[in-house]
Amino acid sequence: MTTNSSHRSFKNRLHDIIYEADTPAGKLFDLVLLILIILSIIFVMLESIKGLPDIAYEYLYYAEWLITIFFTFEYIARIIAIKKPFRYIFSFYGIIDLLSTLPLYLSFFLTGTSALLTVRALRLLRVFRILKISRYIGESNRLAKAIKDSAAKILVFLFAVLVLCIIMGTVMYLIEGEDSGFTSIPTSVYWCIVTMTTVGYGDIAPTTALGQFIAALIMIVGYGIIAVPTGIVSAEYASDKKHGKKIDLNTQTCSNCNISEHKDDAKFCYKCGEDLYNE
Amino acid sequence: MTTNSSHRSFKNRLHDIIYEADTPAGKLFDLVLLILIILSIIFVMLESIKGLPDIAYEYLYYAEWLITIFFTFEYIARIIAIKKPFRYIFSFYGIIDLLSTLPLYLSFFLTGTSALLTVRALRLLRVFRILKISRYIGESNRLAKAIKDSAAKILVFLFAVLVLCIIMGTVMYLIEGEDSGFTSIPTSVYWCIVTMTTVGYGDIAPTTALGQFIAALIMIVGYGIIAVPTGIVSAEYASDKKHGKKIDLNTQTCSNCNISEHKDDAKFCYKCGEDLYNE
Amino acid sequence: MTTNSSHRSFKNRLHDIIYEADTPAGKLFDLVLLILIILSIIFVMLESIKGLPDIAYEYLYYAEWLITIFFTFEYIARIIAIKKPFRYIFSFYGIIDLLSTLPLYLSFFLTGTSALLTVRALRLLRVFRILKISRYIGESNRLAKAIKDSAAKILVFLFAVLVLCIIMGTVMYLIEGEDSGFTSIPTSVYWCIVTMTTVGYGDIAPTTALGQFIAALIMIVGYGIIAVPTGIVSAEYASDKKHGKKIDLNTQTCSNCNISEHKDDAKFCYKCGEDLYNE
Amino acid sequence: MTTNSSHRSFKNRLHDIIYEADTPAGKLFDLVLLILIILSIIFVMLESIKGLPDIAYEYLYYAEWLITIFFTFEYIARIIAIKKPFRYIFSFYGIIDLLSTLPLYLSFFLTGTSALLTVRALRLLRVFRILKISRYIGESNRLAKAIKDSAAKILVFLFAVLVLCIIMGTVMYLIEGEDSGFTSIPTSVYWCIVTMTTVGYGDIAPTTALGQFIAALIMIVGYGIIAVPTGIVSAEYASDKKHGKKIDLNTQTCSNCNISEHKDDAKFCYKCGEDLYNE
Fold first, then answer.
1. What is the pLDDT of residue A152?
2. With CB atoms counted within 10 Å of each terminal CB, which end of chain C scores lower, N or C?
3. Could you report the predicted ipTM of this complex, rounded to two decimals?
4. What is the CATH number of the domain that holds B167?
5. Could you tell me if A182 and A260 are in contact, meaning their C-beta atoms sit under 8 angstroms apart?
6. From the list C198, C201, C230, which residue is nearest A230 (CB)?
7. Distance of alpha carbon C59 from alpha carbon C48, whole angstroms
8. To the nearest whole angstrom, how far is the Cα of D170 from the nearest Cα of chain C?
9. What's the predicted TM-score (pTM) here?
């Protein structure tokens, strides 16, 4: 019973360190993790640059192994610390964690999987989990809410833009032809999207007078309708701001169901009823 | 009398399947149509790509005929199912339906009309009719309303931008001359629109110091005034949001006058008074 | 006395036709003028295109003379019809009218002034005067008001952007040097404006790693601050919309002081007290 | 005592001239300074242009020395005129003043420091200090407030955009490879930022079908989310506008702690309690 209790207590302490950010140990753990993730991304980027001295690639290789081993231990610790491991393993962040740790081992055992190594860039997504320590969490919640509220409208809008791009792209394919780079309808649609979104690479550009006239029309229309999604989000955000109430959330994570963002004065998990202060 | 009644009942059932989306059969029909339209657009796109194996073009040709025959039957069914066929034939979607079905037949009987085949891209517009099955209909209605309310203002604004572009384009034509690609006033105006809308291809770019200075001015002005249409739509949308009431509309279409979007509890067509549940 | 009276009556009728748009004759006059201005602009544009057949340039030359003679008569009529001609002559539109009519005569008498012909593009500005016939006048008034209300803020904003561009342009000049096209500080500032406003020609683009990093920073900042002027105009426009009252203005112009946009029920000019219905 | 008093009085007068803009002498001083700063920036720009006649560089050199000497005297005067000189020396503008004056002296005594001369472009920042004479101060205060209020949200948003750019850049590096210019992950991320912010240089552009498809997706997403920061600032600005009160501030600067923007009827410094009218 004592061992069991001390074991539970170990698991609880591990849970506090890994999943929460309200204790000094938890904050330190998150900080170390954040630095390692950012370092790791920088290493992946550096590795892709050609022309560095050979010794640099060697150091990057060792650094990569060190970080990967740390992440492996972290992954195992996360599974141990939680009551229902499968809920973590098959959660969004659980899959990201696995995907960003595995490739290096695979490239060690199997040849020809070095392309997989780039999957490690997904580690960057883990930054968002850690950012719960930040005072920006309230802002990003409100941002996410405003985007979610406007999502349906913006999707309808983007769909309409896409249909317009396909039709205008087809028209431009007929007018400009292959000499100006409009080699097929998909390419023309690509050009139309590049133009409509005001990106304008210039790798494909109309050369005939009629083509330039229609391109100008497309741009003016694009300029006029860029206002629409902006107006939507503005209105949504303003109305959200008016009615919204700020609720103080903390970073405590339920050790049973892995749900976070409980209210500050919460005693039980709002999802599964688990006692949050249960030792 | 029985045959007449069974005939009316057949027409009614056809009407329910084709024009409405509240019954399982209607939903299925719309789904099949949606898939066929999207497939058809993909086929038109693939056809335009050069360098595919010959067998691919052959398959695309057969697939195209299959889809066109289906659309032909659908077109005929739509005419049969409605009480006033001419109202459908000369409606916006009726013309789109005809235009997107006819070209293949024409290309079969007449040579040299293969350019017409691209008209089939118009089929994409039919997607909007089907989307009435979607829960996005309320959103797109509100979007369309906000755009319509702001249309007059945005047109005034775009007209002012156009006048500015013509005058600045003429100025740039005088300053830069033909060496930098400003070969004529229309080309310079095209360049000015490309710049003002922040598309910026770079196929034409000022090379003289004075030209670059004026181009910078044009950009700064363009950057400053891009705010105007956005502000308009935002304000319009926000005020619409404040005063707007959500009304539940369904997808029922009057079999007499082809008007859709009746209120959920409507018994008679709000336009022509036709009994909507009339069998 | 009779001749004088008939003369006044002729002047009054001329004034009604030229300066007002509420009578059928005034509407017709404005429509003819609008068509001639647009035709004239199209002719100026066509003239600048090289490679047309010689006969086309000849026709354009004759058409230009016809239009110029009409505009000359119009200019003289405008001076005759108004009570205080100098107020018209030195008004904004008076100068535009003169500038867009004179160049052709000058090019006839003086050689080497053909570059002046492009000044005729200023005729386009006259379109705004005619548009008082349009139902868009209310919209453009509100637009102009929103822009004017936001002008001070947008100028402050654009000034800050300009200072930022000058400083970042200098930094990029130091980093990239002449090899990448950053040949001088003014050129670098030009590049920075092109980038910050998201135009992005690509005629000058950073090639060093540090230069690309700073360019990316500039873009992200530019992307973030593009929101500011938009937010300003939105807020200004929305508040204007809330407090604004729609006042019915008509197109009547005072024959004494040339002020237009009197209230619908105005009997006397709000500026100079002239009786508006005085015969 | 008399000398001391006259000395204090001299210091006070100097303080009024240099730090304040409410007296004629202070306004004149600010105007002269503004002109000299702008002239100086123009000179720095001109110097960087190659191909001017040698005599021009010589004149620019002398002009630069004249302006630098004036700025040196101004710097010394600023230190003398204030009660707590270190507060000025280590303030933001104090450091800018030093940095923009020193390089010319350094380039005179040390060779190889001519690159430092470009630091003089920082002088432009001093313009903001002088602009307190302008009626735009109220506007820029409100602008700065709206930006500051939205800063946290916009930073969260830009961070999310950056993460998205890094992940999509890595994806494009895998798809496009080195042939299309995607030579390394950092370069691909740079391309992704250029695309997402709709700058679109075109120096790097996808050439494969899959790459163009994903690029189009990135653009559409970028087009959709450009609305977000705009919406934030709009809402912030509108709400600020609603609740904000205009307070009349003047340009008086406390001679003790160098704080400006006291209320119009202030008698004592709101920060340190110094008597503002103390002679």
1. 73
2. N
3. 0.77
4. 1.10.287.70
5. no
6. C230
7. 14
8. 16
9. 0.80
